[in-house]
Amino acid sequence: MNTEERGPWFLSVIYVGGLIFGFGLAISGMARPEVVLDFLQFEDFGLLFVMGGAALVTGITFAVATRSLKRAPLTGDAYRRRLKGFDRNVIIGGTIFGGGWGVSGICPGAAYASVGIGNYPILWAIAGMFLGAYAQGYWRTARTSTSADAAATDN
Question: Which candidate, 90, 107, 141, 148, has a CA 20 to 30 Å from the CA of 41?
Answer without folding.
Answer: 90
